[in-house]
């Protein structure tokens, strides 16, 4: 359905993207999602500058050419380190490098990464400028509308103003504040109220910038409605738990005339990929764990999930189990 190798697009659209999600949007997940949509922009998990510069660099940068357009998200606050990592991203062929200014976890706070950087707009601007000076690919920022103790619109506008002056032209805004003291990362995705009106005010006040809306979007109808105001939409957990939603994205949001791939066809195209992964010493569940939502909404969905999440571990012929799961999707 898609070629095993494809060159990076000369241009790409941020009309629809899948959010960076820790432990979820690895290269297996992105390869699978690409079988459903050719045009959605896919993001890596957040990679810290320390991991990239001092860890297994090739593992963290690995992707399949089929994944384009694909963006690398970085976590860090040292301008020189971020510039070095941006260069690595460009050399590896990524289409964009994105700075995380939205993650609320304790681990990233302790390392001055993520949402706590909302309180340091001058530092974020310095980081963006260093990255922009280092590479020719786009440098973008993903951020919240505020954090506890710094959640006024004036402070948010000051943040955007400083960072845009440093050269960032595209902002992805998660339309919730992050409460860094007292809420878990999961609670920070659910408890602070969504304020699409605040994000819309940014779009109105900074019309020269590109604005991508993130947070609480669950349907393509909602995507279309938000695209009347914003330049793009980013989906996170809904895109992961209900991946077949992506099969309609190209036609509904990008104007593609191609018929959406069926669930069954998406399963079949993943089989040779899984075979190669296993031949290289990998486990099938590294890939199939990202595919469990493909049968969502069908009577056989529970059986489908059981086959791919539990039964494959009990069989010495896991590909046979995979084929049984694929059979459940024939005609769908």
Automatic annotation (TrEMBL):
Its EC number is 1.3.1.91. Keywords: Flavoprotein, FMN, NADP, Oxidoreductase, RNA-binding, tRNA processing, tRNA-binding. SUPFAM superfamilies: FMN-linked oxidoreductases. FMN binds at residues 20-22, 73, 142, 174, 214-216, 236-237. It holds the Pfam family Dus. The active site is at 103 (proton donor). It is an enzyme of class 1 (oxidoreductase). GO terms for molecular function: tRNA-dihydrouridine20 synthase activity. Its cofactor is FMN. Belongs to the dus family. PANTHER family: FMN-LINKED OXIDOREDUCTASES SUPERFAMILY PROTEIN. Transmembrane segments: none annotated. It catalyses: 5,6-dihydrouridine(20a) in tRNA + NADP(+) = uridine(20a) in tRNA + NADPH + H(+); 5,6-dihydrouridine(20) in tRNA + NADP(+) = uridine(20) in tRNA + NADPH + H(+); 5,6-dihydrouridine(20a) in tRNA + NAD(+) = uridine(20a) in tRNA + NADH + H(+); 5,6-dihydrouridine(20) in tRNA + NAD(+) = uridine(20) in tRNA + NADH + H(+). The record marks 100, 186, 189, 302, 305 as: Interacts with tRNA. The keyword Nucleus does not apply. This is tRNA-dihydrouridine(20/20a) synthase. It comes from the Bacteria. Catalyzes the synthesis of 5,6-dihydrouridine (D), a modified base found in the D-loop of most tRNAs, via the reduction of the C5-C6 double bond in target uridines. Specifically modifies U20 and U20a in tRNAs. Residues 18-317 form the DUS-like FMN-binding domain. InterPro entries: Aldolase_TIM (IPR013785), DUS-like_FMN-bd (IPR035587), DUS_fam (IPR001269), DusA (IPR004653), tRNA_hU_synthase_CS (IPR018517).
